[in-house]
Amino acid sequence: MKGAQVTAKTGIDPRAICKRVKPGVAALGGLWVAPAFVLNLAWEIAQVRLYTLWAEADRLNVAWALFHCSVGDVMISLATFALAGMALQRPDWPVSRPWTGSALAVIGAIAFTAWSEWYNVYRAGSWSCTASMPRIFGIGLTPLLQ
Asked: pTM, whole model, 2 decimals?
């Protein structure tokens, strides 16, 4: 249907709907996720020797852990991206409010990472750190820096 026909039948102008929907939000999320995976994978590779997994597991399990953790890091990154957008009520916050949005995303990521490291190391026993892992309040420093 053409725009005039839709408006005549429904009383809704499709051009008005298109103006309200921000098609760039998904693109911004995609632009956020792609470099997040690459950067987090590089970071995971750099810090894997600070975890006991490096000495205890075979190469395939280490590779799986690196991939798995990088995907988890991307999910954290995407969640903090979305939460910053919700808090600011601006899904385009990287363009419209980059400093405030980045601060919210970083604070959210650090808070989640601190909880996750504590829970997985001390409660669930999912992983453990080597003695060479620098720590702050018992939490690994490299995950917090990530």
From this structure: 0.75
- 47: which 2 tokens? 């810090």
- C-alpha 53/C-alpha 31 separation (Å) is 31
Q: Which two tokens stand for residue 59?
A: 């190469």
* Strand partners of residue 136: 139
Tell me which of 71 and 5 has the higher pLDDT.
71
Segment 30-66, tens digit of pLDDT = 777 888 899 999 999 999 999 999 998 899 999 999 9
Assign 29 to helix, strand or coil.
helix
CB atoms within 10 A of CB 108: 19
Find the DSSP H helices in the chain. 3-10, 14-20, 24-47, 53-56, 59-88, 93-96, 98-118, 141-145
Burial (CB count within 10 angstroms: exposed 0-12, middle 13-18, buried 19+), residue 10 = exposed
Q: Count Cα atoms within 13 angstroms, Cβ side, for 90.
A: 13
Name residue 90's amino acid.
R
Among residues 113, 99, 102, 91, which one has the least CA distance to residue 27? Answer: 91
Let me know: does 37 contact 71? Beta carbons within 8 Å. Answer: yes
